[in-house]
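pinging the channel bc i need a second pair of eyes. not urgent but kinda urgent?? the chain im working w is below, pasted from the shared doc
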Amino acid sequence: MHRGHDYDHESGGLQPQIAGAGHNRANAPVRPVQWQVLHGDPKPAGGKVAGAVADLDLVEAAFVEGFLAASDPTSFLRLAGAPFRAAGPEGTTFALLRVEIDTIADVGAITPHLGGETFRYDPLPATMVSRRRRLRFVYFDGTRLHQLSLAEILELTPD
């Protein structure tokens, strides 16, 4: 690390050093600021990721925000493309019963001790508490309930 001097070694120290992206700014690759894909599949292909939507976490957050504010939730679901009836696996028919939105706050952390049989618990300070929402679509297939994510309902074939 160079500290205490602001000159360029290669030009005899006469040229001021100009700050750039990284120490070797001429060789720094230009990358997009953010690209998000679904967990477990790092291969984006033409805006779709393994048959699902790229940036699904952002789409899901926007869905939750809009759904909670919608004056007509049924029409909102139609606009979002959520199937009310769909072909399920093995020829079953899924019928949408409800949309569940849970608010989750992580207020503590555990650290396993060496060997993994015991652990240490620490409550988190307010600045480290994380909050998130979980979205689930509950479908009935005639015998039991199925909780599906937004990615899973986008894969369903409307009936």
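so The radius of gyration is 25 Å. and DSSP finds three helices and nine strands in the chain. — does that match what u expected or am i reading it wrong
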